[in-house]
Amino acid sequence: MQQFQWYPGHMTKAKRAMQDDIKLVDMVIELVDARVPQASRNPDIDKLSQGKARVIILNKADLADERQNQAWKAYFEKQGCHVLALDARVRGSVKRVLDLIGEAGKAKLERDRKRGIRNRPIRAMVAGIPNVGKSTFINSIAGKAAAKTGNKPGVTRGNQWIKLNKSVELLDTPGILWPKFEDQTVGLHLALIGSIRDDIMNTTELACALILFLNDNYKGLLEQRYALDAFEVSTVVEAAAVMEKIAVYRHCLSKGGTADIDKAAALVLDDFRSGRLGRISLEKPECSADTHGVE
Ligand code: G4P
Fold first, then answer.
1. Cα 226 from chain centre
2. Residues lining ligand 1, judged by CB closer than 6 Å?
3. pLDDT in tens, 257-279
């Protein structure tokens, strides 16, 4: 798993590159992580994409709760975006993606037609924060050779266009967006999905936050995975006690034979991130305006 550390210089370069690239396109295909659609969005994207057709891909939908995927789809559609929940690794979804892009580009083609412009393709770019699946997505819809990564903000960009079909061309390098750093919940959620290294919490604190969230929202998943008796937790201390049981069950023991909570925490986080705990969404649209799922 790739983790990404941001520095102010990265952000400035990413912003500049994005501002330059966006001038070249009619459509922005924004990838967000379906488990945390709010935290994985860029705070400036609405402003940056003004006047462009908008597509939102709820990527890694295979890891997120299907009910929440539907809820988020409705939420973003209400804001005028064209939305698709997707597992970008599955190439069979290309048609669904192209159909959606076609749908989102219709208005632009119609405007062109009225002005007597014909056969001018829709130009689109993919954008998203690091690790959200941009390269995987471009590879899937454009073929293997397409997305040469060099996936750091500010790397020299080729600005090559990939022809997806007769009416759509895609910029070959994705736009790297930056998350909303100043929001602690955003930091927590991105750290939980493993996208952005976050020093505000250590692994054990992170896993405790996850256990508390699962207790409130996905009861039974931890019990099932780690053969635990049904439990109820409401404090970090109680969550740590659960982790101790998990440590014993999974033989995460330190040299003296005592439960190694840090090891168990890493294991729980890894099981969550890879979907082994089940399909879990950390954010719900109804509380997305200013609060989030895991506090
Ligand atoms: P980026 O360009 O936005 O930085 O992301 P990238 O495509 O490199 O994808 C980041 C990680 O997310 C990769 O895993 C990739 O396989 C995974 N991924 C992308 N889309 C999806 C999806 O829809 N569902 C799931 N479950 N995973 C997805 P990795 O662990 O970094 O590499 P690997 O284990 O695949 O080799």
1. 27
2. 1-2, 59-60, 62-63, 86-89, 128, 130-136, 151
3. 999 999 999 999 999 999 999 99
Beta bridge partners of 165: 168
Spatial distance between the Cα atoms of 53 and 208, rounded to a whole number of angstroms = 41
Angle formed by the axes of helices 184-193 and 261-273, nearest 10°: 80
Ligand 1 nearest atom to the CA of residue 4, by list position? 4
Nearest-CA residue for atom 25 of ligand 1:
60
Give the pLDDT confidence of 51-85 residue by residue, as tens digits.
999 999 999 999 999 999 999 999 999 999 999 99
Helix (H, G, I), strand (E, B) or coil at 85: strand
| Whole-angstrom distance, CA of residue 110 vs CA of residue 120 | 11
Please tell me the pTM assigned to this model.
Answer: 0.91
Task: Tell me the three state secondary structure of residue 27.
Answer: strand
Distances 220 to 19, 209, 225, 252, 282 between C-alpha atoms, Å: 46, 16, 9, 22, 16
For ligand 1, atom 14: residue with the closest CA:
1
Distance CA 213, CA 282 (A): 8
